[in-house]
Amino acid sequence: MSRPVKVDMLVVGSGAAGLSAAVTAAMHGASVMVAEKASVLGGTSAWSGGWLWIPRNPLARAEGIDEAADAPLTYLQHEMGGEAADVRLQTFLRHGPEMVDFFHHRTAVQFLSG
Q1: pTM of this prediction?
Q2: In whole angstroms, how far apart are CA 49 and each of 15, 16, 79, 93?
Q3: 9: phi > 0 → left, psi -120 to 50 → alpha, else beta; which?
Q4: How far apart are the C-alpha atoms of 99 and 77, rounded to whole Å?
Q5: CB contact set of 52 (below 8 Å; sequence gap of 6+)
Q6: How far apart are alpha carbons 66 and 11 in whole angstroms?
Q7: Which residues does the UniProt record annotate as the domain FAD-dependent oxidoreductase 2 FAD-binding (predicted)?
Q8: Is residue 32 within 8 Å of residue 8, measured between CB atoms?
Q9: Which of 6, 43, 84, 110 could join 80 in a cystine, given CB atoms 3.0 to 4.6 angstroms apart?
């Protein structure tokens, strides 16, 4: 029988969200374990090819893609209707560009234009 392992953070699933949480926690000094039931890493993110839409991120803006500040919310409101007022959506729009900047400057993640 295996001995118990003690960690600061257990991440269940190795998709983009799980691995992002694991990397961020480890970079802030936490001991982290990722548990994945599949035989390969990546979760559903691997099936999608890892594509992300993070509006107004610094890499897109550096390539000249600099939409108006309200354009992403307007687009999402059109597509989602009343769900676009959700606080999670506001959080995504506000912090998504910070996430791209963090991973671009502090990890080996390479973002490709698409």
Answers
A1: 0.82
A2: 11, 11, 23, 22
A3: beta
A4: 22
A5: 16
A6: 34
A7: 8-111
A8: yes
A9: 84
For 29, counting Cβ atoms within 10 Å of its Cβ (0-12 exposed, 13-18 middle, 19+ buried), the class is: exposed
Residues found in the chain:
114
CB contact at 8 A, 12 and 6: no
Return the amino acid letter for 24. T
Summarize pLDDT for 11-49 with one digit per residue, the tens. 999 999 999 999 999 999 999 999 999 999 998 888 888
> Which residue is it, tokens 């961020």?
24
* 84 pLDDT higher than 70: no
Query: Is residue 92 helix, strand or coil?
Result: helix
Beta carbons within 8 Å of 50's beta carbon, 6+ residues apart: 16, 42
Which candidate, 20, 13, 47, 17, places its Cα nearest to that of 107?
A: 20
- Dihedral sign computed on CA atoms, order 17, 20, 23, 24: negative
Give bridge partners of residue 33 from the DSSP assignment: 10
- Structure-token pair, residue 66: 């600099």
The tokens 């699933």 sit on which residue?
13
